[in-house]
Design goal:
single chain, about 100 residues, mainly alpha, 4 helices
Amino acid sequence: MKSTTKIMSLKTEFSMRNATNFAGSKVILAFLESIRFNQALRSLGQAKAMNAIFPTHRILQYLIIGWLLGCERLFHFKSLESDALVAHALGGRLPHHTL
């Protein structure tokens, strides 16, 4: 699933309903979107097999976003799996934290 809605255009609501522990993620994700971080990683040219579900640039983007949001160890990325905003920024589906 390819996301077409920009992160910057999403409405911010300050209520505790559907809250996650990544409060500042919208600001970080909007910044990465504005500098076209995904396109920069895509231009690195790291190719995987044609049948790979997640290309290398999406895995790198997932790792960098996770580290920016405070995931210091790989098992901390398990908490990102339930965050809808991070999933939206990465195209709808996140790699498993053990990838």
